[in-house]
Known about the structure:
CATH architecture of chain C: Orthogonal Bundle
Structural class of chain C: mainly alpha
Distance between the termini of chain A: 32 Å
Number of helices of chain A: 11
CATH class of chain C: Mainly Alpha
CATH topology of the largest domain in chain A: Rossmann fold
Oligomer: heterotrimer
Strand order of the largest sheet of chain A: 6-7-8-3-9-10
Number of domains of chain C: 1
Helix content of chain C: over 70%
Radius of gyration of chain A: 27 Å
Number of helices of chain C: 15
CATH topology of chain C: MetI-like fold
Amino acid sequence: MAKVELRSVGKSFGDVPVLAGIDLDIADGEFLTLVGASGCGKSTLLRIIAGLEVQSSGSVLIDGAPVDHLRPHERRVAMVFQSYALYPHMRVFGNIALPLVMSRLGLFDRLPLLRALSLRRRRVMPEIAREVHAVAAQLQIDALLERRPSQLSGGQRQRVALGRAMVRQPAAFLMDEPLSNLDAKLRVHMRTELADLHARLGATFIYVTHDQIEAMTMSNRVAMMDNGAILQLGRPGDLYARPASVKVAQFIGTPAINLLPARVSAQHSVELFGAELPIRVPRPVGAALTLGIRPEAITPAQLGAPAAGRHVLVGRLHRSENLGAEYIVHVDLAQPASGVVICKIAADPESLVDGARDLALVFSPAACHVFDAEGHRIADAEVPNIASGVGAVSMSAVHP
Amino acid sequence: MTAAAAVATSATLPPRNRQQLIERLAGCGFAFPAFALLLLIDIIPLAVLLYLSFTDYQLGALDTHFLGLDNFAKALADPVFRRSITNTFVYVAIVLPLAVGLGLLIAVLLHGRKRTRSFYEVVYFLPVTSTLIAMATVWQFLLHPSLGPINGMLRTVGVHEIAFLSEPAYVLPTLAAIGIWHLVGFNMVLFLAGLSAIPRDLYEAAEIDGCRGGIDRFLTITWPLLGPTTMFVIVTTSITAFKVFDTVAVMTRGGPMGSSEVLLYAIYLEGYQYFHMGYAAALTLVFLVFVLLFSILQTFVLDRRVHY
Amino acid sequence: MATSLPLPGQAHRVRPVTPASALARRMLTLLIVHGVLIAGAMFILLPFVWMVVTSIKSPPEIFAVDFSLWPKHFNGVENYGNALSKVPLLRFALNGVIVCGVILVVQVLVAVPCAYALAKLRFPGRTTMFALVLLGLCIPIQVPALPLYMGLARLGLLNTYFAIMMPFFLSVFAIFLFRQFFRSYPDEIIHAARLDGMSEFEIVWRIVVPSAWPAIAAFSVFSLVAHWNDLYWPLIVISDTHLATPPLGMMFFADAESGSNYGALTAAATVLTAPLVIAFLIARRRFIQGITMTGIK
């Protein structure tokens, strides 16, 4: 169990830059997820940590010591591949035992015919067998030890791959989209299992995925990557509540966040479709802004209903999707005919959205996220606390 | 059912049955030419061979006698025939391990190269496309005791010159060397294809698990996963080697003193030079049995062990 | 500062890899690898080089005791002229083209419908036919050669183009290969074609065959190479030099020239080997694909 540190790690393939100086500290025992769309460089970064790729610049440290010139198996990391990479010609036992065999027996002890003569092998194999059985029992695959990988289901193969990683007692577990090849139900189940495994082992997990749900549910911290750089690093809740940029806000959360064009008004507030929102923005007047409102923060209501302290947009019902526990409502904005806003509400007892055509969309200014023209979060936006008159309430206080 | 009704129903056969009928007709029609040729080229000749092998027919002979299994008995006792079998097996025994082993070695060495791979592939594959007879003539010159450069080089090193093709002890190994020269590129290509089929992340997983060098990687991943390819290469190489004829016919004619007379060449002599059709037919059947044994070996014995 | 981190129970300490030692090891490996490859390449190329070089040397140089690689006197024209006149070399090449071309065309014409029928159509005798095809795969040409020779002799058809080509009109290997290919062709497309009113014949040639083009091309390569270089059967049925295929022609020439005019001999060898080698150099991918196809049996 170890901490992993990345110092200005960069990588280019020829002229094509793939990673731009990444700095990242992963604590001992942490579950850190690298998440992002395809091509953002997360897998490359993982492979650099493993030693399968050599970085163009920068350094990787494990437990404080640079490992840049160590081969993968010397770094004491274990990797679970997307395709599991199980050795098809060995049984499950052989697959899990291989790392131990490689490290404890010399070449002579492993040669096909000569190894019968090896004394060391005779002494070491029972130890190895014990360890393999122990790991298999932990993962509940001890009944499968004599099978070949081709005879296993997807979930079972995954566990064998995990077993092969665990048996090495590595400094860190590296996982490259291990759940992508499983069907949806199995994926949900394995998410729990992996999280439990992490809790049990207390080991450092570095996990790569493009699925934000996996990132949110399993990790201690999430690093969202885009175009070879880390956009935001923080706990899952932080990325949800305080996205550092439009890209992060869009990536985290389903359905995706609503983004509306706005401006800085003459009073340094947010001007949305001609109306002023009580959000103070210390930026030049007339500067372009993007206002982000999550679907779960918008409530559709009857037109004309009172909405004290909240802002209202008007629109016409486009479509509503009934998911059972909740509704996802698509509303065409009336003015100035600028797109569809998506809201998510709990099951609606008043059949509001079944029948009603013109709706009012109610939201609290405090629930808004303000981004500047480049897409960066404006952190010093404030919502003055009108009701209590005690002064401004900073946006960050609203999102704990 | 009246005749009219029967005609009426068949004219209006439901589409499904018509379709089936068309399929059957088309199938038979399509397969017929091939079937006819099969009959003509393989089946009937096999039957004729069988019949001939029990007779003492000679081309142009007036009468033929039925001999039963005498031809086969004669073959087993015939020192010439036994020598041809031995020669053929010695040839195969030399060619097989070297052609397969070298093909594998070259393929493994080439597999990792990026820039030079095309060049070496072309070079090693050239003998496969070349006309063996023509090249055999060149080899004859190369191996010539006094004129050939190989003996020339031996002389410069101080070794006595070797009569590669006229010394009974050296003839088969020399022919085998030429056979290997001819086959290596072919096996190399097959092994390269087999190597490319091994997924890359298996090697990466192995590297993380502790496979240190080339030898480890080869023993742990490459060799086991090349199983089907290796098996195929072994069988084709042994069958091809068993059918050796061209080099013998052009370079040695079975000499010196029959030390390079291989099975096919013996059959050729019996059938087309001496015209002992009955005897040659019996020998051909023996040849066929050996080839079938090699093929069956592939299909049943090795096939099971090797697929995952 | 590079350290090594031993695994529990590790058999040996691993030496840390410094950049310098890693580079040295890489260089050494490269040296050995290329050394072996080049040594092998020299062995492979030796006859080719020698063949071409000798074909342009003059007789005194060829017979000189101390040999040199490059000829001092260029005698190429005479050697080649000699070869071309003594024996109809170009005729041999032409025969090769005719024979291989016709064989290939007939093979494809016969094999494609049969393979399609075996793969996609249900008809009586289908299993038997396939069993026969498998059997045919195990029977090399040298087996039916004897009876076929006798039959052709009886019919007075020896020493004809037909005699050389006839046993090869059927290629069970082609049937097997194409059948594998056709089996994986989607049934739905064929159903759609039938619904559109296409006859089975049209379906085969206008829909399925174009998609099987890679397999057909690869097989063509295999067939052309095999039959251009075939000696056994032409040797049996042909005694007339005007009908000889390249290998047989070479043999005739070698017989005629036994032992003396190496210049002309190697010139002839060059001329007869050149077509395939040049074709190979041009269509490398197809060649290698064709050969690899035999591995996908």
